[in-house]
Amino acid sequence: MILKGSQRGSGQNLAAHLLRTDDNEHMSVHQIRGFASDDLHGAFKEAEAVSRGTKCQQYLFSLSLSPPEDAHVSVEVFEDTVDRIEQRLGLEGQSRAIVFHEKEGRRHAHCVWSRIDADTMTARPLPFFKKKLMAVSRELYLEHGWKLPRGFENAAERNPTNFSLAEWQQAKRQEIDPRWLKQTLQDCWKRSDSLGAFQHSLQDRGFFLARGDKRGFVVLDHGGEVWSLPRMLDVKTKEVRARLGDGDTLPSVDDTRRIIAERMTPAIRRHVEESRGQFRERAAKLTDYNQEMTALHRAARDRLRETQKIEWDAQTRTRAERLPKGLRGLWHRITGKYQKVRTQNEAEAKVSRQRQADERQKLIEKQLEQRAVLQALVKDLRKRQAEQLLTLRGDIGRYLKFSRGMNTTTPTRDISTGLKLDR
């Protein structure tokens, strides 16, 4: 189970994020403990109000718990994990809230604690919380027999293609998988030992090397988007200069964009847009299926919730009728029968609560399996789209190579498009 925690303020923004149902297919507030309010906004307002009596700005500790994709994790396991983390981090007794989310066929949880100790009016310190969370995470993988991520087996094998938020958003704007982009540039770097070899390797993939204004070496894709080369390669600028030189001979970003605009033919642009259009059309159909499935799943959970409520109310009335009132009730207390009946009622209520919890968990797991089938289709579509765009980028690189070898004075026409190809 991947555990990610952070100290933060802005409780109202966090509550709004946790309660979103547009970004999550299912959302449920599982527990609010230690707050007077019974809703997230009110609870986090209380935490903020208490923090005003201290100098603490980051008065909340927010934790996300993400199990492996193929694991069926019960509510009890999530609760046990939260309790274990609470003890490891020194947050015992602090007010907390637990929220469950389901998205793309996976279920994960969020737990938020108030860091402010109301007795001492100080914030609970959280030294080395990342290392402690990593230790708990490793324990969970071993206890449940889940396959350890490579980064847990050896820190040197962690995924090198992790992006910052800004890099991820930039890649999303360009409809490029950031992991593929980073891996592609790193692969070109590994295959090259000089400036010329690196340029050729990049252009085979449809990328262009340029001289940046402040960032030194940069890479542009066929759309003219600029990426910092050292950042994409996860190396220092001096290492890049050691292999590629100072880059004075490279064109500027503006010149490179003009070259891209001249060499990108309308035919290839049309192929790229057509591929993206087909992907959006197919993705829209899957999105419609997902929305329909989500509505059916929500309705099924509502029906089960209502059925269980009716059943629980009926059982509660039956148990209450077993306890006599008045003089008869007093006699039962004196003889000890009252306590026996009460113990029996509590045992039956406990069994009933567990049975209903098992019913809810069974329904959730069944729905997650159904959603996983649809998610497999989504992943396959994304994979095929990435492969198709990769092929088109290779075509762009090959065309650029071809255009460089043409006669610079004699115009030629592309036999497939009829376009005049001038240098």
Order of helices and strands: EHEHEHEEEEHHHHHEEEHHHHHHEE
- State the helix count: 14
Report the CATH topology name of the largest domain: BirA Bifunctional Protein, domain 2
Number of strands: 12
Number of domains: 3
Low-confidence segments, ≥5 residues, pLDDT <50?
155-160, 405-423
Beta-strand content bin: 5-15%
What's the pLDDT, averaged over the residues?
Answer: 80
The outline comes out as elongated
**CATH class assignment of the largest domain:** Alpha Beta
Indicate the percent of residues in helices.
55-70%
Main sheet overview: 5 strands, antiparallel
Strand order in the largest sheet: 1-3-5-4-2
| CATH architecture call of the largest domain | 2-Layer Sandwich
Structural class by helix and strand composition: alpha+beta
Distance between the termini: 56 Å
Write up this protein:
This protein is of the alpha+beta class and 423 residues long. It folds into three domains: 2-157, BirA Bifunctional Protein, domain 2 (2-Layer Sandwich), CATH 3.30.930; 165-263, no CATH class; 268-404. The chain has 14 helices and twelve strands. The strands form four sheets. The protein has a five-stranded antiparallel sheet. β8 and β9 (217-220) form a beta hairpin. α1 runs antiparallel to α2, α3 (75-89) packs antiparallel against α4 and α7 (178-191) runs antiparallel to α8 (195-204). The longest helix is centred in the last third of the chain and has 68 residues, at 337-404.
